[in-house]
Amino acid sequence: MRRRRRVGAASGAVTEDLLSAYVDDELDDTQRAAVEERLASSPEWQAVLDDVRAARDALRGLEPRGAPVGFWEQLIATGPRAPGAGDRSADRGGGGARHPRSVPRWAYVAAATAVAFVLAVAVVPRRHEVRPDVATFANAHAVRASLGGDPIAALAGAAVPLRTRR
Amino acid sequence: MADGIPTWEEVARDHGRFLYNVAYRLAGNDQDAQDLVQEALLRVRAGLERYQPGSLDGWLARIVTNVFIDEMRRRKRRPVDGFPDDDLDRVLPPTPPADVGGAGLSTEIQAALASLPEEFRVPVVLCDVAGQSYEAIAAALHVPLGTVRSRLHRGRRMLRAALVGIER
After folding, report:
1. Which of the given ranges, A64-78, B74-88, B127-141, has the highest pLDDT on average?
2. Which residues have a Cβ under 8 Å from the Cβ of B96 and sit 6 or more positions away?
3. pLDDT digits (tens, 9 = 90+) for B85-107
4. Where are the alpha helices (DSSP H) in A42-153?
5. How far are the Cα atoms of B34, B51, B91, B156 from residue B45, in angstroms, in the given order?
6. B75 close to A (CB below 8 A)
7. Contacts of residue B106 in chain A, CB cutoff 8 Å?
8. Are B37 and B67 in contact (CB under 8 A)?
9. Helix (H, G, I), strand (E, B) or coil at A26
């Protein structure tokens, strides 16, 4: 069995930090003796030692926290999943992955912007333009008809008056 | 189990209680502890081929600690990405505490532990909950032994001060 490496073996300084290591039996013999010597003459150090020991004992005395009911059964049945994976609705009420955090919020904003752009390009009606415009075309036709003496075609100039031109 | 290497299901069954307890003490609530355990077991499953038979609890404590530290870093990078409020109703009901008589005290100790900054809480949990040696903690956190000793001592002193504050 590998022997634990003791804290403080490479340092000769006796600092208050050693008190926790002293409580945990993580000091080498030299450091332990130095700490005990200091403790014998220092009520302050003794008070700190008591505090450290009390905190340590409080934590070590805690009963282990158990997982919620059904957590392990579901995990073993479905396998572990990264938080954010899978279907939210399938996870509801279960103990599996629960947070769809793998998709950042900026991705939703970018997707919404892209959709809005496509809709703007494809759906919003654009101004309809015809070249040459109708008035120019009709006037030219009327001129040709009047020169040719065609009575029916000559009516075209009356149908599209010149003032319709912009 | 083949060649002394357990399957992830065996890890979950035989060491799940230990894993969950460490995750809970690190995270401070069941919701986050469940996520830590899920992620830790994913890493266990992926890393079992490289596992060297030895202290499985130590290996698990190291993995769940790394998951916790990664998660804390991720949240610091994206502080608005907390847990959605609607997730609160999806947390499974907690297991009735085993120490019914001392449930109040347990709650106070857990609250005091959760009040510690992470850099102090992690070595305290690894030492006093996971039962790891200073050397193992130093290896898990990639820090010198002296740093473990210092943070552990300061963490315990802060924990004691918080407990005294709660008692008053």
Report:
1. B127-141
2. none
3. 334 333 344 444 444 444 667 89
4. 43-60, 71-78, 88-91, 105-122, 134-148
5. 16, 10, 24, 34
6. no
7. 62-63
8. no
9. coil
**B165 has pLDDT over 90:** no
Residue A28: both structure tokens together: 């080498």
Does residue A154 carry a pLDDT above 60? Answer: no
Average pLDDT over residues A71-88: 76
Judging contacts by C-beta atoms under 8 Å, the chain B residues touching residue A17 are 146, 149-150, 153-154
Across the A/B interface, how many CB contacts are shorter than 8 Å?
A: 163
Query: How close A6 gets to chain B, by Cα (Å)?
Result: 8
Map tokens 């499985």 to a residue.
B56
- What residue has token string 């069954």? B13
Closest partner residue to B20 among A65, A80, A93, by Cβ?
A65
User: Quick one: closest CA in A to B44, which residue?
Assistant: A80
Work out the angle between the directed axes of helices B30-47 and B56-77 (0-180°, nearest 10). Answer: 120
